[in-house]
Structure formats: C-alpha cells, structure tokens
Specification:
The chain is mainly alpha-helical and 231 residues long. Helix content is 67%, strand content 7%.
C-alpha cells in the first residue's frame, strides 16, 4: 500500500498536453539538477508501466511535491492549468482517504502522532525548497536575456558593429567576456548559473568593461578608423 498518493508521468503528460517522452526528459533534467540530494524520491519515484502490447516501459510517479516542482518549469497559462489540475487531483485523493477513514475524534494519541508527522513533513519541505533555490539553474528565457545583455555590453565596448574593433577583434572580445563571466560565477557554462544569481549576473554584465590590455587593442583598432577617415 502506498504511503503517499502519486500521479504517474503518463498522467502528467496527459494533463500538460505533452508527449510522455518529453515529460520524462523534463523530470530527468530536474533530477540531474537535484544531484545527490537525499530526498529525490520524495519528488520522483522510478516506476514502470505496461502498454497495450504488454511491453514494459519506464515512468515516474510524482508526489504532490514532485508535481509542484515540475510545475515550476512551466510558465503562463499552461503552468496555471497544470497547477489547478494536479491540485484538484490530489484533493480528490485526500477526500477519498478521509471518507474511507474512521478516525475516532477522542483518539488523542493518534491525533498527536498525525500532527507531529505533519510538522516533520513541513520541515522537510522547507529544507528541500531552500536546497532547490540554491541549485536550480537559469531557465531558457533567462539564458536568452543574459545573451542579449552580454551582446549589448560587448558591442558597446567595441564601439558598435560598424567599428574596426568589431570587424577585427570581436572574436577575441566575446570569449574574453564569457571567460570572465564563468570565472566570476564559478560555473563551467553560463547556462549553469544558479537562478538565485540571475540579478547579480545582469548587474555584472552591465558593469563589465574590457581589461586594460584588451581596451588598448580596441582603442588601437578604432584609432585606425579615425585616422583613415581623416585622410
């Protein structure tokens, strides 16, 4: 008998209007972000299912926490619709359990044990949320914003797309920027930036300036353009 009610990844796929393999890939990406976190299975439980040809395939069972975590990957109307759907589903299951249960109201010991378990569960959830906040990576929209902001900052430093510096050394300046960015935030790739550092990253990009030696090269290139125009 399951200790906690769950939804299968197949049900989730139907609820969000995606193929099951896409939902599986989403879940596995989240699990990779969790790393060796001890409570992975309090979110996603590996399981299997049989198709109509009685062939066995992998799937996941999502706890209520797992559904909440999965919903953070979805934005806009779809995210809202999924949140409503899984909340209603779990409420149905909880109401069913209450209807089947005949807990005596005067059973003080059992009530206290239930309350204690509930409090412990809340503490675990709070710990998990704190962990996730520190480990979730920037999403695709935030990655695009970082790329756009970086491009604007680098173009400004080069003197624009029409500058000699852009034509001659932009292939050197762009990697120099991203190397500094990765070194500052201690990440191997900019998409690995923790979500909680997104605002700091935007501020870093706005304040970025080329190193002294790189700035000398930029000025030299653009100085040639000025001299050429003068002649």
């Amino acid at each position: 008998m399951e200790l906690e009610k769950t939804l299968t990844s197949l049900e989730v796929a139907e609820m969000v209007g995606r193929r099951h393999d896409q939902v599986m890939r989403d879940i596995e990406n989240v699990i990779n972000h969790l790393g060796n976190h001890k409570s992975v299975e309090s979110y996603f439980i590996p399981s299997n299912y049989e198709n109509s040809q009685r062939k066995t395939f992998p799937c996941y069972k999502l706890t209520k926490k797992g559904c909440e975590l999965y919903s953070t990957r979805m934005t806009g109307e779809k995210g809202t619709q999924f949140a409503i759907a899984y909340i209603e589903k779990f409420n149905e299951m909880e109401n069913h359990i209450k209807e089947q249960s005949h807990l005596p109201m005067n059973n003080t010991k059992l009530l206290l044990e239930t309350a204690l378990k509930h409090e412990t569960k809340l503490e675990e959830i709070e710990t998990d949320v704190t962990y996730l906040k520190g480990n979730m990576r920037v999403d695709s929209l935030q990655q695009k914003d970082l790329q756009k902001a970086a491009k604007q900052s680098i173009l400004y430093a080069l003197g624009g797309k029409e500058s000699n510096a852009y034509q001659e050394i932009s292939k050197k300046v762009f990697p120099a920027f991203w190397n500094e960015f990765k070194e500052h935030f201690k990440v191997p790739r900019y998409p690995d930036l923790p979500k909680i550092k997104y605002d700091e990253a935007i501020r870093f990009i706005e304040l970025w300036r080329p190193s002294t030696s790189l700035q000398i090269e930029i000025d030299a290139c653009n100085g040639q353009m000025v001299m050429s125009d003068a002649t």
